[in-house]
Every structure is written in structure tokens, then in C-alpha cells.
């Protein structure tokens, strides 16, 4: 169950490794709003310090979630991810069959690059 595994990895990263942020980099323009959606979902919903009864939680909650479609965001922050001093988990998201609308040689080159990235 992929969602359960990803959730467990997030708990592991946040509470055992102490990572305070996570980047999400979808490599398809159709998913360009996914990082913003996850910010709303995870940081607002899970970024609480108390449970429903008002008791302090024993574990850290949501990390800071940020990112952008990889094709747009790569120059903005990938330099820091590659060469910075903080460890920041990155979730790269690719699609199995891109719908870029290209044809001929361009489509072949795009498909080849897509396979290499996967």
C-alpha cells in the first residue's frame, strides 16, 4: 500500500531523523499544483501540537512541505538541495505516460529522456 508506506517514511524522516521539511517535485505540468495542495492538506491538517482533547502530542507533526513542478523549480532551489548543508527529503513524481502532445523526432527524444529519468 503505497500511501501507507509514504506516510510511514514521513514519520520516520520527521521523528527519527529530525528532518523539518520535505520537497515535492512533480515532473509533469498537470501536477504543478500538487505541492500547494499538499501544503494545505498536510501543514494545516497535521501541523497541530495537541490532540483532540488538548493534550500535547508526543511526536513531531507535519514538516514544512514545499516544492514546485520540477521543470520550473529546479533552478530555484535544486542548487541548495544538491550543495546545501541540510538534508531535505525530496519526493520526485513522474508520470508513466506523459501527454505532451509532441510528435515525430521530438516525441522520441522526450520519451527517451522520460525513460532515463524513471
TrEMBL record:
CDD domains xrefs: SIS_PGI_2
One Pfam family of this chain: PGI
Protein's UniProt keywords contain Ribosomal protein: no
GO biological process, one term: glycolytic process
Domain of life of the organism encoding this protein: Eukaryota
Any one cellular-component term (Gene Ontology): cytosol
The entry's keywords: Gluconeogenesis, Glycolysis, Isomerase
GO molecular function list: carbohydrate derivative binding; glucose-6-phosphate isomerase activity; monosaccharide binding
Entry protein name: Glucose-6-phosphate isomerase
